[in-house]
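Incident log, support desk, overnight shift.

02:14 A customer reports that sequence design results differ from what the structure should imply. Their input is reproduced verbatim below. On-call engineer (initials T.W.) acknowledged and began investigating.
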């Protein structure tokens, strides 16, 4: 049997109800000709495995005994790749009929493109951030505090004030639809396993660009991305939505230590505490109540706890 050009990599965590519509959308995009399916189930407690066997019996399935996180789960599938490209696709992301054909054609025609993303819209059709700038201690601080008017010209991570109708290079792309050239994976690998959740694709795109490849936003097809379904199930299972933010806090620290060094990490910690102070003062002046002020204190405390738990962002806690 001829190898298909793209391997579709799916990490599932308690999203059984999304599997049918996700695979239906892929099949309408001619995936049976263009793609093979590789799935990791991250210890789901719903009926995901039974549903998957019915919805896509031809998929290669890896079933984990525990949730190993998004990046590590995708890494488990690297040894099974056979195609020229790998498409990381969330279970809550639904491709258009022309998505696979157009994106594969673009990659074929542009051999310097290492990673390709597309136009993302929500369930209601509203445009989502689809083409992003790298996070820095400063732009993360400005985004949290809403002080953008004091920093004109600063590139924000989710900058949306540009036309989304033309192909353009960018810093990084969301992992819900993430088309990667196999040569890139052979050269730089996939995700840093230290990130349990969040920042995997940010770090990967940075390494891809440092290796000389291009990261490209392609607007001529659209993927509907519901967003947050796996995270929602994590929160429900753990009955603690704050745990979700702890994943992000930890990954942020690991990222800044890795790519900005100790000085960048120190600046980030300073700006986190300054940001929480600014937000607490805003809450006080606007009469938002003691709870809003306490939230700022909890965020600072959680960040310091994560810093110490990761041995100053040298290693993950999970």
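02:41 Re-run completed on a clean worker. Output:
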């Amino acid at each position: 049997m001829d190898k298909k050009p793209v391997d579709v990599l799916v990490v599932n965590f308690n999203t059984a109800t999304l599997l049918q519509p996700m695979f239906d959308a892929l099949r309408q995009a001619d995936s049976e000709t263009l793609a093979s399916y590789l799935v990791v189930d991250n210890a789901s407690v719903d009926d995901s495995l039974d549903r998957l066997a019915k919805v896509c019996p031809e998929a290669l399935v890896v079933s984990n005994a525990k949730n190993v996180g998004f990046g590590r789960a995708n890494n488990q599938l690297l040894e099974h790749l056979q195609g020229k490209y790998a498409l990381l696709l969330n279970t809550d992301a639904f491709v258009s009929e022309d998505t696979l054909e157009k994106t594969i054609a673009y990659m074929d025609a542009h051999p310097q493109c290492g990673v390709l993303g597309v136009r993302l819209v929500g369930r209601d059709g509203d445009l989502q951030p689809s083409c992003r700038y790298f996070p820095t201690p400063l732009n993360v601080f400005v985004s949290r505090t809403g002080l953008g008017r004091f920093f004109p010209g600063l590139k924000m991570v989710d900058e949306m004030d540009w036309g989304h109708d033309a192909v353009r290079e960018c810093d990084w792309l969301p992992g819900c639809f993430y088309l990667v050239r196999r040569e890139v994976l052979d050269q730089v690998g996939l995700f840093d396993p230290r990130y349990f959740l969040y920042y995997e694709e940010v770090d990967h795109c940075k390494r891809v660009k440092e290796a000389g490849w291009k990261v490209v936003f392609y607007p001529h097809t659209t993927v509907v991305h519901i967003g947050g379904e796996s995270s929602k199930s994590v929160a429900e299972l753990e009955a603690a939505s704050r745990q979700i933010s702890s994943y992000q806090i930890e990954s942020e620290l690991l990222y800044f230590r890795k790519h900005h060094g100790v000085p960048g990490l120190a600046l980030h910690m300073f700006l986190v505490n300054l940001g929480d102070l600014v937000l607490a003062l805003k809450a006080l002046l606007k009469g938002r109540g003691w709870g809003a002020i306490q939230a700022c204190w909890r965020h600072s405390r959680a960040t310091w706890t994560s810093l110490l738990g990761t041995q100053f962002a040298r290693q993950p806690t999970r």
